[in-house]
């Protein structure tokens, strides 16, 4: 599956616990990454400052669903499930 143009859910829903360029404290879940463009594309695509976790993310139906709204919902659920007990 290819990323859905104009989605950007993976740049909003999950947390990034490591500091990275532009977000020295990382990114909390539900907060839009400062590098998400108005067209909902990653502004750090191809840039070595892009977090490794972002580069490793692969669009899949299980996480992205059929719409941006489904992707946000499914990624939020994964975030909740990944929290320590």
Automatic annotation (TrEMBL):
InterPro entries: UPF0153_domain (IPR052572). It comes from the Bacteria. PANTHER family: UPF0153 PROTEIN YEIW (PTHR36931). This is YkgJ family cysteine cluster protein. It comes from Kineobactrum salinum.
